[in-house]
Design brief:
With about 750 residues, the protein is of the alpha/beta class. It folds into 3 domains: about 5-255, SGNH hydrolase (Rossmann fold), CATH 3.40.50; about 350-725, no CATH class; about 725-755. About 60% of the residues lie in helices and about 5% in strands. The chain contains 29 helices and 13 strands. The strands form 4 sheets. A 6-stranded mixed sheet has the order 4-5-3-6-7-8, with helices on both faces. It has a 3-stranded antiparallel sheet with strand order 9-13-12. Strands 1-2 form a two-stranded antiparallel ribbon. Strand 7 (about 160-165), helix 7 (about 185-195) and strand 8 (about 210) form a beta-alpha-beta unit. Helix 13 (about 385-405) runs antiparallel to helix 14, helix 23 (about 595-620) packs antiparallel against helix 24 and helix 27 crosses helix 28. It comes from Campylorhamphus procurvoides. Keywords: Acyltransferase, Glycoprotein, Golgi apparatus, Membrane, Transferase, Transmembrane, Transmembrane helix. Its EC number is 2.3.1.45. This is N-acetylneuraminate (7)9-O-acetyltransferase.
Amino acid sequence: FQGGDTCEYLLSSGRFLGEKVWQPHSCMMHKYKNSEAKNCLIDKHIVFIGDSRIRQLFYSFVKLINPQVKEEGNKHGNIPFEDKSASIKVDFLWYPEVNGSMRQRIKSWTEGSVAKPHIIVVGAATWSIKIHNGSNEALAQYKINITSIAPLLEKLAKSSDVYWVLQDPVYEDMLSESRKMITNEKIDAYNEAAVRILNSSSRNSKARVKVFSVSKLIAQETIMKSADGLHLPESSRDTNAMILMNVYCNKIMKPIDGSCCQPQPPLTLIQKIAFCFFTLSIIGYLIISLIHRNNYRKNKLCADLESGEEKKPAISTSDVSTLEMLLHSFCKLGLIMTYFYLCDRANLFMKENKFYTHSSFFIPIVYILVLGVFYTENTKETKVLNREQTDEWKGWMQLVILIYHISGASTFLPVYMHIRVLVAAYLFQTGYGHFSYFWIKGDFGVYRVCQVLFRLNFLVVVLCIVMDRPYQFYYFVPLVTVWFMIIYATLAIWPQIIQKKANGNCLWHFGLLLKLTCLLTCIYFLSYSQGTFEKIFSFWPLSKCFELNGNVYEWWFRWKLDRYVVFHGMLFAFIYLALQKHQMISEGKGDPLFSNRVSNVLLFISIVSFLTYSIWASSCKNKTECNELHPSVSVVQILAFILIRNIPGYVRSVYSSFFAWFGKISLELFICQYHIWLAADTKGILVLIPGYPMFNVIVSTFIFVCVAHEISQITNDLAQIVVPKDNSTLLKRLLCIAGFFSGLHLFSAMQDQSRH
């Protein structure tokens, strides 16, 4: 199913999501703000010609430019509108019938050097039906008149956008006696005549009058809410005006969430180089595979006819297998990236807007929770936050976040606030996990740092190249990367304090707490000093990584939103490991974490705290105010969950293998959803199978999860090759990587220059 001519779909087909949200077939419609409408229509002249229904459309269109405009003045006369700040002129010309007068007005724009309107919207028929009492002679005359006007409109369409608005159906039961002759049967006959005659002589596809027929579909659903049975309710004509704005402005403004009428973006220089690289990788892998297979056949073990001894293969080197693995990984990655590009950059597959309902969010949540509980197994170890448990935690959180994104639940504030806690919990685990590793093992080597940075950033760097997106666009990866480096710097700088050293002298514990206090002070200072933060990240080359839309504000906002939770994770790890070292907690199978009395008290406090936070989050009225409190209070629910999950011995001893499986690929799931599950950079939903929403979600989800799992395997394989343990080899690889990013920066600069 091709997404092809989305303009045609936008003008002719669609359906309602709920009562007021219109979903065009195959593409996404952007909701234009007044400032965006002005920027698009600057120095433009728009003309609406027709009867009272076109006048309604005129007013709805004008209100997109200036919401303060009131519907007043002579209803049966011309109505001018001008926005001097943007030099926009919008005129309504009263021509209720398709006749000689209308023809003369349209003809005046085709002659001489008269300035032509940039957009012309025409439509009329109901007056002809009413005045002539629905006679067949009137219909015949209508056909003659529209036949004489059609060539003029087609001539104007060569330089202007011309739209013919088909007549909407009426609600016959509500029509007044003077309008009873206006029947839907008559309207259909007039519409059929207009469609058949318009563009009949035009062979040039660019010089065509665009038939605005989608209004009929909208009216069929909403005309019963009309005040008089003839004119559309306000919400319906506002939808028509927004469609008109999308048809004209999307190709100019290129909004991310407006895929209708947007041309496919041209390939950039970097994308072309990436395409060549992946193509060569595929060819190279095929050649290596053929050579390897032929060598295997020639040198396979066989009995020597003379001595009876076995001959060993002549060729069997690790270099060949490493090269083959490298090319095999890039071959698979190239095919996967092709799918990414086709899904979210080419106009091959359809995209639709999100639409939130409570059932679309909560029913899938209940479903996956039941599945998760069904796949319950015993853990290999019963320590607090053991590997299986953290994988399980990441898994169910990731699934909830995915459902949150595809259902568009961000519009519902209580859900949004709880999802913010899940994102904070990921960062809490970052602080807990990396602190625990450095504290226990004391491994501050370059190899460890490079391994972590590679695994975190490999997929995002590839997507930045293939999908032509800035690094900061995938905000979560820059966030965890920066926090990992902060944790590393905090513990690695002199004096290096690790558990082994601290066990010999308790004063080292205070030294570590002093380090953590300094870290907290720096976080607090940067969170309230936006200028300092922006100066730090505005220096080259950091600015190349953290700028989005020309500034680092988005990065500051993302960082500030969960600024304390990584510190909380580090502090929790320190306290937990200290309690564990001094044997103040019991982690045996089936044993409560503390004594029965203490465990019961802590469990009660945790449950109350967990519910209290949920009540507070559910009662939020203002997103900005709640976001201000979130960094300080999100840790309450996170700690409450950890204690509820780990204090009872039985609960700590089991985990969900279903959630844990997803937890192992949670990072890949989070990143891949941007382009092959959602669409238009997460603003919409990818549609592989139109007309069957549930089946579409099942198919696209299956592909999405398989791709995420495969990318996880590719990343692990490449990490072993690109980041070797040998320091001298690793240094050479790092120089190669530095050269790669220098080249990438050079090509990026050339790309930006060519765009400007």
